[in-house]
Amino acid sequence: MSAGDTAWVLVCAALVLFMTPGLALFYGGMVRTKNVLAIIMQCFSTMGVVSVLWVVIGFSLAFGHDAWGGLIGDLGLVGLRHLSQGVPGYHLSIPPLAFMAFQMMFAIITPALISGATADRLKFSAFAVFIGIWLLVVYAPIAHWAFSPSGWLAHRGVLDFAGGTVVEINSGFSSLAAVMVVGRRRGWPSDAMTPHSLPFTLLGAGILWFGWFGFNAGSALGANAVASQALVNTQLAAATGLLGWIVAERVKGGRATTLGAASGAVTGMVAITPCAGFVGALPALAIGFAAGVVCLLAVGAKYRLRYDDSLDVVAVHGVGGVVGTLLLGVFAAKGIDAAGSNGLLSGGGLHLLGLQAMAVAATIGYAFVATWAVAKGVDAVMGLRVPPDQEVEGLDTTQHAETAYSGGALGRLGQ
Q1: Backbone angles phi, psi at 73, to 5 degrees
Q2: Cα–Cα distance list, 20 to 32, 227, 302, 347, 362 (Å)
Q3: What are the residues facing 385 on neighbouring strands?
Q4: What's the CA angle centered on 268, arms 262 and 272, to 5 degrees?
Q5: pLDDT tens figures, 323-377
Q6: Whether 175 contacts 309, CB under 8 Å
Q7: What is the pLDDT of residues 372-404, one digit of tens each?
Q8: Residue 269, Cα to own-chain centre: how many angstroms?
Q9: Which of 324, 250, 325, 313 shows the shortest CA–CA distance to 291?
Q10: 350: how many CB neighbours lie within 10 A of its CB?
Q11: Three-state SS across the chain?
Q12: What is the spatial distance between Cα 309 and Cα 173, in angstroms, rounded to a whole number?
């Protein structure tokens, strides 16, 4: 055991947890005043629901001994029993409990991301049930595929440093399935549904940027050169993601916006997530910029295809994850991390790119179909959506008997 590695991973676990309140502010600023507490509550509630389920059974399903051809883990780590004996397939320099805690924070923020797509119309009770089932049915199997050494994607050589498939593509295309089940908001897209507090959103984006250093650099599972590379790459991709988005925004619409800057930084970090410890600094610049441009263009798809992704989770996380996962097949270099592979530009040919494309297709397919089934089941049993009159009044008062603002001009904004 390394005291330095342990301290680093524990700090990074705390940073990743801090991202969920950051996400709550990021999303909270983008909804109308009557729904701000509801979206924040959904993000916060994942910290409670997922933490309990992760310890009881989720971690075992994701990281236990392989139970079925690389598809899911067994029940050997239920309730964290036998964890002191180690995590199957891993040779750690940190306590297994620290690894479990770090992965718990990933499991918390991933379903919280989905709340942005379904904002303004979900029952709180139904959301809590949905994310609990989703964690076990969707997240845990995909985490086993890519993060567990015995998972079928990892076993075939697919690379995912910090969650391009497990977190980003998974949450993005699960969000697409969820919004197709729950339906569009009343009045969308004809009614204006503008953000009520862009300063909130920028503050949330800053917290996400800060926490993402733990998300990516902590995935090295040690205080070492790979962690340093991942941290630098995260900063560079966030910077060029921001620049790519606002440049494309300026070309397309004539203005660079603060919301665009925040969204662009997030897309850059999304795209570098699978790549962070496997590519150099110059590729990180290119990956972030590409994500900023592509994800901005992807936002328009919801209007053409008529699905109501309230806060653009599909475009930012789903498409951004696809961009990063595929570009990893182009830019990966074993000189950065010997545990990785060489991509197209490092002499590896098309082999890794083909594997990454397979991982993208498998993750999209399973996440969409399984999430659609979970959402349909919850909707049939208890109803996912609030009644029309409650949606008009707002979720803050109808679901939580609270208001974010006590009155005056600010309290009336966005009603």
Answers
A1: -85, 165
A2: 20, 22, 25, 39, 27
A3: 122
A4: 150
A5: 999 999 999 999 999 999 999 999 999 999 999 999 999 999 999 999 999 999 9
A6: yes
A7: 999 999 999 999 999 999 999 999 999 999 999
A8: 10
A9: 324
A10: 12
A11: CCHHHHHHHHHHHHHHHHHHHHHHHHHHCCCCHHHHHHHHHHHHHHHHHHHHHHHHHHHHHHHCCECCCCCCECCCCHHHCCHHHCCCCCCCCCCHHHHHHHHHHHHHHHHHHHHHHCCCCECHHHHHHHHHHHHHHHHHHHHHHHHCCCCHHHHHCCCCCCCHHHHHHHHHHHHHHHHHHHCCCCCCCCCCCCCCCHHHHHHHHHHHHHHHHHHHHHHHCCCCHHHHHHHHHHHHHHHHHHHHHHHHHHHHHCCCCHHHHHHHHHHHHHHHCCCCCCCCHHHHHHHHHHHHHHHHHHHCHHHHHCCCCCCCHHHHHHHHHHHHHHHHHHHCCCCCCCCCCCCHHHCCCCHHHHHHHHHHHHHHHHHHHHHHHHHHHHHHHHCCECCHHHHHHCHHHHHHCCCCCCCHHHHHCCC
A12: 11
Q: How far is CA 87 from CA 53, 56, 110, in A?
A: 18, 16, 22
What is the identity of the amino acid at 221? L
Question: Is the Cβ–Cβ distance between 328 and 274 less than 8 Å?
Answer: yes
pLDDT band at 22 (very low <50, low <70, confident <90, very high): very high
Give me the residues paired with residue 66 across strands. 73
CB atoms closer than 10 angstroms to residue 12: 26
CA distance 109 to 85: 27
- Residue position matching structure tokens 């919280």: 112
Note the pLDDT of residue 407. 62
Averaged pLDDT for residues 137-165: 97
The first and second tokens of residue 67, run together, are 């139970």
Q: What is the pLDDT of residues 109-141, one digit of tens each?
A: 999 999 999 999 999 999 999 999 999 999 999
The structural domains of the chain, ordered by start, are: 3-402 (1.10.3430.10)
Dig out the tokens for 176 from the structure: 């697409």
Q: Give the mean pLDDT of 148-174.
A: 97
Cβ atoms within 10 Å, residue 130:
28
Among 14, 261, 50, which Cα is nearest to 135's? Answer: 50
